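Quick one, tokens below:
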């Protein structure tokens, strides 16, 4: 927990703005950056979490993949290999993979040379790999793919939690008191035991996620049969309906 706590504190100092008055903040963007750094620390230590290009790549990899896929779906299958060469997001994905290879493969070689075995995901993958999984390029690719699932979903929960706290300010004081009491017992550190001493926070987190699930909408894949003009949507936009 200590390395994670350290990275969270450092990330807040670097990402969250200091202000003396009310200041507009893109909460989702800030939490995405914060989670990107903390995830990178867990995946490969400070060599990844303090590498700005890597953190940015892990964040934009999922966005580029989603947008690139949506653009490719507009074309027939037989044209997609050609069209892919002209889609900016597809080119960016290749750049992300190149960065992963350039950064992670030397790290893997250095660890093998020195015998260093840090407690992170990268080392766990090396130690449990079998067959083709032992290939260094394969491991580097997987690190990038893991970030696809880890960052944006993890950032969504605290983002919504902040929104819910703003909507229900009366809950802030009880949660703050519970946190202070838990930290006093654990010596000021957010340990596993301290987390177990915060049932109100646990309940509020669960309820926030229950009322604001990630999959609150579904994409309408079939196109509308007749032309549809929307004043607030660009041409060929994708529509979502809540359910």
């Amino acid at each position: 927990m200590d390395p994670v706590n350290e990275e969270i504190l450092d990330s807040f100092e670097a990402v969250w703005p200091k202000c003396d008055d009310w200041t507009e903040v893109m909460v989702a963007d800030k939490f995405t950056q914060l989670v990107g750094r903390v995830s990178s620390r867990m995946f490969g230590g400070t060599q990844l979490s303090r590498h700005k290009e890597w953190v940015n790549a892990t964040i934009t990899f999922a966005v580029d993949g989603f947008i690139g896929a949506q653009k490719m779906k507009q074309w027939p299958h037989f044209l997609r290999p050609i069209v892919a060469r002209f889609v900016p997001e597809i080119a960016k994905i290749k750049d992300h993979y190149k960065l992963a290879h350039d950064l992670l493969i030397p790290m893997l070689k250095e660890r093998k040379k020195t015998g260093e075995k840090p407690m992170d995901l990268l080392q766990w993958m090396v130690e449990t790999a079998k067959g083709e999984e032992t290939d260094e390029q394969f491991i580097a690719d997987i690190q990038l793919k893991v970030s696809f699932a880890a960052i944006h979903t993890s950032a969504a929960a605290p983002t919504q939690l902040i929104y819910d706290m703003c909507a229900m300010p009366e809950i802030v004081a009880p949660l703050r008191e519970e946190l202070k009491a838990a930290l006093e017992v654990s010596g000021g550190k957010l340990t596993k035991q301290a987390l177990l001493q915060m049932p109100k926070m646990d309940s509020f987190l669960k309820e926030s996620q229950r009322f604001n699930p990630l999959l609150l909408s579904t994409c309408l894949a079939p196109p509308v049969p007749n032309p549809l003009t929307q004043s607030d949507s660009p041409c060929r936009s994708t529509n979502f309906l809540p359910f």
